[in-house]
Amino acid sequence: MAWRGVNSSDLTGVDAGTDTPASAPGRQRRGRWPLRLLSVVFGLFLFVLALDLLKDGAHAYGRAIVEFLNVGSPASALGFGWLLAYLFLSGSPVAAIAITFFASGTLDALQTFTMITGSRLGASLIVLVVGFLYYLRGYRRAASIAIGVLALLTTAAIYLPALALGYWVLSSGVVGTINAEADVPLTSFLDWLYAPILALIDGLGLPGWALFVAGIFVLLGAFALLDRALPQIEPGTGEFSRIGRLVYRPMVMFALGMAVTSVTLSVSVSLSILVPLSARGLVRRENTLPYIMGANITTFIDTLVAALIVGGAAAFTIVLVEMVSVAILSLIVILLVYRRFQRLVLRTQDAIVRDRRTLVAFLAIMLIVPVVLLML
Question: What pLDDT, on a 0 to 100 scale, did the predictor assign at position 341?
């Protein structure tokens, strides 16, 4: 399948030349919605299950490198967390490892802080992986890959300044240790549903690569269901335009991203679902930026609780400083400079996905930077 650049129709989710019927029989629409709803529910079920399988498979081979790397500075801890998130295809387990290292005395507070930041910078890779799989299916051209690039850019644009702010707060002693308590880890409503299934799969004793391959096939099946369930809607027309006037407001999308991630406790799920939604024309790329920023704040909820249980009040303070720093930077952008921020990020994305060479160069940079940091 040949790669080509992404034009405006790819990124807004509107195919050039797509004809929209002036009117559809009401009875047909009413008769199809129960089937569409069932397809959406089952498709989302498979979607989350596929992400769990991908992360479990990646976790199996990712853990093998932990013992071979020596982390001795905040910069190397940043690169370490970044690379592990690439390998695990998730930031949460890497953040939990950082907290464990802190509790055992392996990492100090600043190294733990930067390792957690690295875990979040690398966690967005799952969106690009999901987008690439969606692209391989030959649907919506390269728009799905563009969403993955956008997730990486938006996360880096917020987290890197937040890293500087949080690092200064911790190193300067502005905040003391915050006392808090937690008896049990926080779980999402999805845990009770997926835990027995994952336990059953784990009981089969499949190797990590088999889980990873199974995750890919389950993900493709989820996409097939979502493709059939989600209609191709042209934004700006009909009922969708009335919804768009509300949903496309930055603060609404920001709150929605926070809410979805708070419920699922997985930024991988809340961000990856943007791929099929964007490719089907239900979400414009420019409206995903505040959603991504919101999701990147509440993704710390499970890490906060893990910090209390494993590392106590000191670990809790480290994670809280990170969460507040990201929230402050995100709110500054949303409230004061959002339009300029949006234009800058989207123009950068356009330059990256213009052709295959620039995309490969971007991916190479995203790999080389954490490797260089790890050696510092």
Answer: 94
